[in-house]
Amino acid sequence: MIRAATEEDVAEIRAMIRELADYERAVEQVRTTEEQLREALFGEHPAAFALIAEDDGTGRVAGYALWFPRFSTWTGTRGMHLEDLYVRPSARGGGHGKALLAFLAAICERRGYERFEWWVLAWNEPTIDFYRSLGVEFLDEWTVCRLSGEPLAELAARAPVALDRTSAPPGGGSYGPLPRQ
Predict the structure, then answer these.
(1) Which residue in 68, 64, 66, 65 sits closest to 45, CA to CA?
(2) In the list 41, 47, 102, 103, which could disulfide-bond 2, CB 3.0-4.6 Å?
(3) Which residues are catalytic?
(4) Contact predicate 118/82, CB 8 Å
């Protein structure tokens, strides 16, 4: 069964995030707290959304998917970015991953999202093979870019004006929601 995550699932989602990071050989990079997840998923302005896959026989949590909307300037429409898709090893092969992806695709269809995108590690051949079996298109001509840590701080320091909750961009408009201070 696939269902929307609830606040009661936050601890289980955090545990699965750590399991996924361990599988991806990066568990030491996980810093997310339950409080951060609760705010991101169920706060006043959710940053992301999550689905839970439960085993029909046992009712145990088998996996999860965590996603957020994105926007394409080329299509002029929203899309979906899948941040995490994880099925516990003991539940793999039971159709949970395919069910989560199908549910997410249905959300895209219902909301008029034209794109459903995510990343996969190049060494993760079993997952790549699974995605290929679904007809997923791999965009080999794109390279993922990331700016974080000290390089992010250094570039931010070069901004021509300091951002605060009251400053507006030149010419008016909005920078979007600024974090609480």
Answers:
(1) 68
(2) 103
(3) 131
(4) yes
